[in-house]
């Protein structure tokens, strides 16, 4: 995101700074290692009908925050925590970001994730996105008798970004209403009953049942 100067339409003698989304290609692992990424997507060489590169965006929905200071002698054992998102070239010798043995000797870790990021090119390569998701939970009285999940969720979303020509959900089936007198196995009454027959990309669903 960058700011650009523009003339205020409602007050021509004034200028405003408005945010603008700019596109930047990241060529190396060092450029693609982030502590707090804003908007990152993996683009393919093909384009959609609008002329935009098809791809997928990674949207992180939670952050664990800082673990220990980077200057700590034990930090290399969990150096994956430096980055909320890091993209590296896929290598057979880099299967995991850490090792169970790191906890036994964190001062000389078996696997140091920071070593994975060594400024290699990532353009037109098989890539791995290393994502750190988590949250800090501070106990409070409302945790009794159990901790609620609202506000305590972790994860990320892998979202299509210019991958489709339009919103694919418009092809989803609408809600279905039928009465006990109707045949719920008939496609004209219940389109969902025939969905596995009409959509070859869907898994085999168990037979649709209705207890009346």
From TrEMBL:
One GO MF term: copper ion binding
Domain Copper amine oxidase catalytic: 10-170
Cofactor comment: Contains 1 topaquinone per subunit.
Cofactor: Cu cation
Keyword tags: Copper, Metal-binding, Oxidoreductase, TPQ
Positions of region (Disordered): 1-22
GO cellular component, one term: plasma membrane
GO biological process: amine metabolic process
Processing and modification events after translation: Topaquinone (TPQ) is generated by copper-dependent autoxidation of a specific tyrosyl residue.
Enzyme nomenclature, EC number: 1.4.3.-
Keyword Metal-binding: yes
UniProt keyword Metal-binding, yes or no: yes
Family per similarity comment: Belongs to the copper/topaquinone oxidase family.
Protein name as it appears in the record: Amine oxidase
Species in which this protein is naturally found: Junco hyemalis
């Amino acid at each position: 995101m960058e700011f650009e100067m523009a003339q205020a339409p409602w007050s021509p003698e004034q200028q405003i700074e408005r945010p603008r989304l700019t596109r930047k290609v990241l060529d190396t692992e060092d450029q693609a290692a982030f502590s707090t990424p804003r908007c990152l997507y993996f683009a393919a060489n093909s384009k959609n009908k609008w002329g935009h590169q098809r791809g997928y965006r990674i949207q992180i929905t939670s952050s664990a925050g800082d673990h220990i200071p980077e200057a700590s002698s034990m930090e290399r054992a969990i150096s994956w925590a430096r980055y909320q998102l890091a993209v590296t070239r896929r290598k057979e010798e880099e299967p995991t970001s850490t090792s169970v043995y790191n906890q036994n000797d964190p001062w000389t870790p078996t696997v140091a994730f920071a070593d994975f990021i060594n400024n290699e090119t990532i353009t037109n390569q098989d890539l791995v996105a290393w994502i750190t998701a988590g949250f800090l939970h501070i106990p409070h009285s409302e945790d009794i008798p159990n901790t609620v999940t609202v506000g305590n969720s972790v994860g990320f979303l892998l979202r299509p970004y210019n991958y489709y020509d339009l919103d694919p959900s418009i092809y989803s089936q609408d809600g279905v209403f039928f009465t006990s007198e109707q045949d719920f196995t008939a496609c004209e009454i219940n389109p969902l009953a025939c969905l596995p027959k009409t959509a070859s990309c869907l898994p085999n669903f168990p037979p649709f049942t209705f207890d009346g």
